[in-house]
Amino acid sequence: MKQLTLTAVQAKNTSPNLVVFIESEGIDSLSDCLTPEELFFFRQAYQREVNSFFFPRATGAIWVKVLKGGKETAIAREDARLAGAEVVKEVLKYKVDSIALRTYGADHLLLSFAEGMALASFQFLKYLTKAEKKRHALQTIEIEGVHTGAVSELDALIEAVFHARRLLNEPFSYLSSPQLAQEAVELGQQYGFSVEIMGKEKIEALKMGGLLAVNRASQTPPQFVVMEWLPIDPKNDQPIVLVGKGVVYDTGGYSIKSSDGMEYMKSDMGGAAAVLGTFIAAARNKLPVHLVGLIPVTDNLVSASGIVPGDIITMASGATVEVLNTDAEGRLILADALHYAKRYKPALVIDYATLTGAAVRALGNQAICYMGTAPDTVKRALEQSGFSTYERLVEFPLWREYGEEIKSQHADLKNIGGPTAGAITAGKFLEYFTEGYPWLHLDIAGPVFSKVANGYKTKEGTGAGVRLTYDFLKYYFT
Ligand code: BES
Ligand code: ZN
Ligand code: ZN
Question: How far apart are CA 452 and CA 328, in angstroms?
């Protein structure tokens, strides 16, 4: 069920609760909604640099938020999102179901403010059994004076991010490999993109040795999800292929992880969540871009049947890989998917993966570590979308010297490099399977998960990649 709906309203005061968002220039217009006494109080406090206000009324309340304004656009938009998040946390305390949102003059930032409000109001309450905890979700934000189309586009994007967050937060006890595939099928039916699931036999027939090797420890079969969004009049002749790492739980296998923080590895399908979220947003908004989505799905467990360090496997492409660390499993399953992507003769392939701790160490959770062979124009456009959605990216090099580190004595490749530059050697490994098409690799291990709530990012899954990719596809390919 949908948690939150954003709607466009023309008439004022549709909801008894109102949030007013303004920049300093809008202050004089507050007489439109505040009483003279409230306005007097406001002015006194504003002079003392207070910028958040709460005025209770008999039937509801007014919250007023003032931003300074006059900044560079991407940062101003981010400040508006953060301000929206701050206000909605106050609103939620009053267990309000519905709120109207209005501005006097800050129209250019109103949707960003709404976006921050919406994103910060995400809740994952499925496993709470106490009814009173379940009740206080905000259900509607009525945005005044904004074009219906723009509001519905944002509503779709928020819904897409919420699905991605929900999937990230779901524990492995629910989100097994077949369940993730099933979620894709249901989302496809609900939002209107096609989904085909390949089970173990099909994966065997395709000789996806990477996916099968990682899955060998499991009692649960792997899945390979193929999705397609084919709009009536696509702007691209050849599809854009989005590939997402779908490891529903990563113990590391025999190269087992330490138990410290292993619980976060329920979110090792963050790439899959980013791709699914993008498909939801694209289909709901009828984005005129032909998309194919590929999600290799498995868990990475420990058992007597699992692969062990030193094993040599043959990938779908025919390449052989010496597996020296079973915890470097993401690249094994992605390699098979990247090979599979060749059949579409894609205009561009982008993969999304919670691939390396090295990416987290390099950039923390503030940026996506990315690299690839796509032209500079594509990279700059993606970076631009990164700034405007504040899902920022930093490019890492794929210099051939880094490739030396994944050469194996016994096989074509080994699945780990040396102790340094781990995000890049992982990228070099993937690059090996991307011959014939322009490609980008996004290591989202840092930004996809937040251990604490922060701004409009709620605790745990953030849904990183969805807003970025939607924005990129919208502006670059249309
Ligand atoms: N899923 C992990 C990467 C990860 C680490 C994601 C921390 C999110 C937070 C991946 O499968 C992994 O274990 N990578 C190893 C690779 C290494 C063995 C070469 C890593 O980064 O330690
Ligand atoms: Zn791993
Ligand atoms: Zn992993």
Answer: 26
